[in-house]
Design a protein that fits this description.
alpha+beta; 6-stranded mixed sheet
Length: 724
């Protein structure tokens, strides 16, 4: 897909050959094609390239139309000018002129047709579609090669032969016939694609696109942005049905060949009338012609005053309506609640064991709490900044993105397995590794406290606690420095219980006294670790299938063997033990690498077990245009909060009955793997991760976003309201 995108988007304009869009030449004038004989008497295919244009070396292709008429050995091209671009990487291009020689052996006399394909771009950033020509060459069969250059064993004759060596004349001589191709000079972008917008209501815009006849617009390459405005924020477009189309650049796409009107919903923040500055970015092509680079239009829209705010605007704190102070408070509360999430408890139980058995001074207890907090804060900041950086780079990512990467899921499963093995007494590290292994079991030392904080964050980020959603949405739209404050507040909330225990002696005295019970408790804590590893393996199988499950089980056995051998080396110092340790760890890492290479599983079109249909923007628009209520559930297999809601609410008979009573369609989006379409839906509704629940009413009004943690009463009421 990367190189296909390059065919449309083009590259940076060359300073040496400057042309304007209005002067764009027809393809046969930009690349004048001819043929002739070279000095050896061989046929050459030649291109004269206009200034400001170039051809790609790797996009040339020549094949006989009938393989039984000609045995092709090679189409020889000279080295091109090196060029590095965003989409093709290191490639080669030709400017001014290029000639290629076709070597092979004619299998019959007469006119032989070849399918010729090539492609080029203009320096202004517009690329022509691949040009296909039918070239008819006259030749003689079975003559020996004049030079044999480039032909194995000197057995095949080239297309063109020196006339002095010919045993009979070349039929028709060195002439060609080129199949005609009608070309039409493309329109300027402003004439080919018109875009305009008006306020359709107090909380909706209507954007109209009008492609000229013979042109089409890509649906999924269209973006809407609203300049900062205190009155409204964009929610997202509701696309009308589009037409499937296959083109040379993106394969199967959805396009519009005729005028289309797109409603774009707004979230009102104020009631007063205001002026909006809408930026529309889109891309389109000429049918069987050029494709234009992405175009932007700035449109001013007068937004009328609103009588009231919608219910969703009044009750749901939004990233646009909350301030920095409130975002910090929500983040702190959300981080604190994370301590109660089942995805975090297995790791936090390690910290409980360490605090209960420390028996150390108050200063040591404070040091443990501070190092743990440092691990949490640093990890939250790194995960948050990484998510923001990757999103700004154009990747479809959100909160919990790390568990969309199978190699990381596999690595975390092995870490949990290693922690469990350590707690079970299978192995322990010596002091020579700075006490890291000891910190995994007895939780002593700064490194162990810091590591526990890191691990707590890694397993906590797939969970979304109450209050977190609004805080994260604010962070994902705020400047980097402000966002960092929100992520640190989340981390502070997660670490707060241990900070209090470390700095409030009265709370520390409430912990059980150290004793023999600790060894039993430590071994018992191994089983939550094993369960966490099992959960991660289940997620991995859902992402990459049974093969991934097989590889991670092999890696687990190899890890266990390495741990056993390491413990044996610690006791007996046998060389074979350390060798087995290294081999086991290396093989486990290799197994994770194999998992990373596995292909993504194809998602099912629907799920009959729970009555849901797979999320599709087209299907959602179609259902809404038909006046049907829709309950959208954005979920992921690694999202513990999602699974808890589905078990407690969405799998109950009361939910199914509410769907039936309201006539609503249950639509589910699976964000277990990276999915740009689902990320776009999350962005439209102010969410940076899953779960997200939106109920779209039958009357076509904006959808109502439900809280992160569901109750049956809340869902039933929302579906009842959607029917009206």
């Amino acid at each position: 897909m990367r190189w296909l995108m390059g065919l449309i988007l083009g590259l940076t304009a060359s300073q040496a050959y400057a042309i304007s869009e209005e002067d764009l030449l027809p393809v046969d004038e930009a690349y004048v094609f001819s043929t002739g004989l070279n000095a050896e008497g061989l046929h050459e295919l030649r291109w004269q390239i206009a200034d400001g244009y170039y051809l790609y070396r790797h996009r040339f292709d020549l094949k006989p139309a009938d393989p039984s008429s000609f045995e092709l050995q090679a189409f020889e091209l000279p080295n091109g000018e090196p060029k590095t671009d965003e989409f093709f990487g290191d490639t080669e291009i030709y400017r001014q002129a290029v000639s290629g020689i076709v070597r092979g052996r004619a299998l019959r006399d007469g006119e032989i047709e070849f399918r010729l394909r090539y492609q080029g771009c203009a320096d202004i950033g517009i690329c022509y579609p691949p040009v296909t020509r039918v070239v008819s060459l006259a030749m003689t069969a079975g003559l020996p090669s004049a030079s044999g250059a480039g032909l194995p064993g000197n057995t095949a004759a080239p297309i063109g032969l020196p006339l002095a060596n010919a045993q009979k004349p070349i039929i028709g001589g060195p002439t060609i016939k080129i199949a005609p191709l009608e070309e039409q000079l493309p329109l300027p972008a402003e004439q080919a694609f018109q875009a305009e917008a008006i306020a359709d209501s107090a909380d909706s815009l209507l954007v109209r696109f009008t492609p000229a006849p013979g042109y089409y617009l890509y649906r999924d390459r269209t973006r809407f942005e609203l300049a900062d405005n205190p009155a409204a924020k964009l929610i997202g477009p509701r696309w009308p049905p589009s037409k499937p189309h296959f083109d040379e650049h993106f394969g199967d796409v959805q396009v519009y060949f005729e005028q289309v009107e797109v409603p774009v919903a707004l979230r009102r923040i104020g009631l007063a009338a205001s002026k909006l500055e809408l930026t529309v970015e889109f891309q389109g092509c000429q049918t069987d012609g050029i494709c234009y680079p992405p175009m932007k239009r700035q449109i001013s829209v007068s937004l009328p005053a609103a009588a009231t705010l919608s219910a969703a605007d009044e009750t749901a704190p939004d990233s646009a309506s909350i301030g920095f102070a409130l975002a910090l408070l929500l983040a702190l509360g959300g981080g604190l609640i994370l301590n109660l999430m089942p995805c975090v408890l297995p790791v936090l139980s390690l910290k409980v064991l360490g605090l209960a058995g420390s028996g150390e001074s108050a200063s040591k207890a404070r040091a443990h709490a501070l190092w743990y907090t440092a691990g949490v804060l640093v990890s939250f900041a790194l995960v948050g900044m990484a998510a923001l950086a990757l999103r700004s780079a154009g990747l479809a990512l959100g909160w919990g993105f790390q568990l969309q990467q199978p190699w990381l899921v596999a690595t975390l499963a092995l870490i949990m397995m290693a922690v469990g093995l350590s707690l079970s007494g299978v192995f322990q590290f010596g002091a020579g590794l700075a006490g890291v292994g000891q910190s995994l079991t007895e939780k002593k030392g700064a490194a162990g406290d810091f590591f526990t904080g890191v691990l707590a964050v890694v397993v906590a980020t797939p969970c979304t606690a109450p209050f977190m959603g609004s805080a994260l949405a604010y962070a994902f739209t705020a400047p980097m420095a402000v966002a960092l404050g929100v992520f640190l507040a989340l981390g502070l909330g997660l670490a707060l219980p241990f900070l209090l225990i470390g700095f409030v002696p009265a709370l520390a005295r409430m912990l059980p006294r150290p004793g023999a019970w600790m060894d039993t408790f430590k071994q018992a804590l191994a089983f939550p670790m094993y369960l966490t590893a099992a959960w991660l393996i289940w997620v991995l199988i859902k992402q990459r299938g049974a093969d991934a499950g097989g590889w991670i089980l092999i890696a687990s056995v190899l890890l266990a063997a390495a741990a056993w051998a390491w413990n044996h080396w610690q006791i007996r110092r046998h060389a074979w033990a350390i060798t087995l340790t290294v081999l086991g760890l290396g093989s486990a890492i290799a197994s994770v690498a194999m998992i990373h290479q596995l292909p993504t599983l194809t998602k099912a079109a629907s799920s009959s077990s729970d009555g849901s249909v797979a999320y599709s923007a087209d299907l959602l628009a179609k259902l809404r245009s038909e006046g049907k209520p829709v309950f959208v559930n954005m979920t992921a297999d690694w999202c513990v909060t999602c699974k808890a809601n589905e078990k407690a609410v969405l799998s109950r008979d009361s939910f199914k009955q509410a769907l039936a009573d309201s006539g609503a369609v249950y639509m589910k989006g699976d964000w277990t793997d990276v999915d740009p379409a689902i990320t776009a839906f999350l962005d439209q509704h102010g969410a940076v991760g899953v779960p997200l629940y939106v109920v779209f009413p039958a009357d076509g009004a904006a959808g109502a976003k439900l809280p992160t943690v569901l109750t049956s009463e809340l869902v039933v009421e929302a579906l009842r309201d959607a029917k009206r």
